[in-house]
Amino acid sequence: MTPEILDLLFPNELPDIKEIVKKYPSRKLPENAVVSRLAPSPTGYLHIGNFYQGFMAERLAHQNRGVFFLRVEDTDQARKVDGAVEIVLRAMGHYGIMPDEGAQIDGSERGEYGPYTQSKRKEIYQAFAKEWVKKGLAYPCFCSSEDIDLMRKVQEKQGLRPGYYGRYARCRDLTDEQILENLKAKKPFIIRMRSNGNYDNRIVVEDLLKGKLSMPDNEMDIVIIKKDGLPTYHFAHIVDDHFMGTTHVVRGEEWLSSVPLHLQMFKMMNWQAPQYAHHALLQKMDENGKRRKISKRLDPEANIEYFAQNGYPQDAVLEYLLNLMNASFEDWRKANPTIPVMDFPLNFKKISNTAGALFDFVKLHSICRDVVARMTADEVFSETLNWAKQFKPDFAKKLESHADMVKAVLNIERGIGAKSRKDLSKWADVENELTYYFEAPIKIEPSLLAPMVESDIQKIAQDFAKIYSSEDDKDTWFNKVKQVATDNGFATNMKEYKANPSDYKGSVADVAKVLRVLVTGRTQTPDLYQIMKILGQKEVLNRLSVVA
Ligand code: GLU
Question: Is the model's pTM score more than 0.85?
């Protein structure tokens, strides 16, 4: 390739390759340290799958004395959204997952291996693309998209592999004269790599998560520099992960089939390829019992923000994701109920390598309930308040002005080990739970107490109201409930009732249910004795008198 052509292809002043190499010395890290990264496109949205990937990469790096960095992959300028980096960093920061290096919220960067935003690295990619063209490893391609479409159609018709390769790579063997002519005619061009691969050769790929795989070699002359002068993902991946010192690339399995291409490119550069870890994509079960990818369009939970907005405890989300990564998490948690979640030793050999990780809300909620059950009332209160300040300001004010009462409510059946209450899975549930403290039930749904007859309900309420005292201890309180049961023809315990059901209208459980529903409007609540105590004498009598 003549210098004239090179200058026409790359008219801008480009940095010297030797200078670039000098600028990125190898990292001084302990032996076997892991350097990994999250490399999202700045689309204004952090998909839960990207978060999952970033968390996995972060664990891998930080559990192996290494570095975790954030790289902004903004080479698709059309999809770029302002403020997207902030969205990513805030979403990660919410869970305490902070990159050691990379783009920062204020537009600055931290770290010695930047710039960490691809659009700011244009000259670096171009310098290497130019070097490849010089060496004959890449060439300009002047095919229009219509040319490419037409060629694809022909290939399809003939039952051939579609793509720009071999004898279908029309611009691969243009002469210098032809290239010059096209350039002088100002024909738009892109730069393609000249693949030296043969599809019939098999490449052995060692993936950290998928194991040993054999795949056909890459034969496509893929695009490395686009019309706008920016690189494609493939080329940027090679250049960036090399110079940024990435040792492990954790990414979604949609990239697995590109590994032969990437290995080929690393070889062409004479660089050592990183280790790859391709994780399963997060899936969900649809209404028809079929697995499908979690979709931005269909599923609100595709956006990691969803979990912050709905007040999911951060630790529970992390626990759930670790649980998806390593099935052994649950046993670890059982053996270590009080250790921080980040102390879990994520084992890469045990990460599921199946085709999809099933995201299941039932399991997530169960983990949430366990996580909240382990917290103190004060912790639940302050987490709920933090959440409310951000997403429910009116509720936050209410929490602050009733702090003592709310803490007392949260303290019911808490701190008693395995028997601790497990009714709260997220901070939004606290709001729901508090509704009956703030307001008496407006209307008692008759179905809640069916088939109990109205006259019995009234009588139970009246009788209990006469003897209730908020000063009573729990035994006295319960004896009073039993007293009302006896007086109204209900057995004082289940055993008695079951022995002779026809002798009674029901059991003390039915009586307690009447009181619970009248006081709270619900059939299921934490300890009713405690609830009544918090509501106080006057309020309890008021609520019982609604029917009395
Ligand atoms: N920007 C790419 C993506 O979001 C990054 C893949 C990678 O981690 O290398 O899929």
Answer: yes
